[in-house]
Design goal:
Chain lengths: ~160, ~120
Amino acid sequence: MDELPPVDYIALTRATYDALGYAPYQWAERPETPPWSPLEVPLAAATVALVGSGGAYRRGQVAFHWKDDTGIRRIPTDQPATDIRVTHFAYDLEPAREDPNIVFPVDRLRELVDEGVIGGLAPTAIGCMGGIYSVRRTEEELAPAIVAEVTAMDVDLALLVPV
Amino acid sequence: MPTLSLTSAYSITASANPPRAAFSDLPLGNTAGRPHEPEFQRELLRRALQAGAAIEEPGTIVETGMRWDDTQAWKRRATSTGVSRDGDDGTDPSRDDRNERHETPQYQDEADRLAAEAAS
């Protein structure tokens, strides 16, 4: 069996941009030690908030647009994922449209509460569309909106699901 | 607020360096598992949450050990947006599968657009 290393998407994107004559994409680089908040309760007692950047919204909500949309969508977690939709310009949406749980695992987290793996799931999950090319707008608009939502939830852990 | 980030893009997460991350070796667009395989998805989350909650060193990326399949053939067709489908090997670097970026809502389907307009 081949043991292939993880796909290096930074290198793949760099090669694509070079071949197309684009300026190099500026990936987030944070070499400094990241800020640390300890988990205050055991996982089995922890209430978890789901935040997904794969472009999840709920049927009836306005979909994300694809040009630096820094909005968020509040998605109830007590209902099955059948009404969750996904939209994003930069990844293959077909699998996630067949099963939104692969980018927004709301059904699975609800089941892990029943199993006792986690203590609870916040009643609202946050969807956003992570394909934002403006670092400034991500830092000044999207990130503070997510932080405000999640900190107001009184949860113990935020589970971030990027694509 | 403690955070744990799932990822299937190791190099991007290593560069962004979040406090806690859990890597699963899956194609882009399948961060939380294979579609329509609930037990695979639950096991991925169990491993990610349990190993992630045990991280003590900021910036650690734990590995869940979850992989797409044993052949890993998809990796040879990986592109910057996913996995090429149409028989090519995905190695043409000038290929750009990203969609054009529009400033209007991009609904999954027309019924969604109508549902959103009815709700507004």
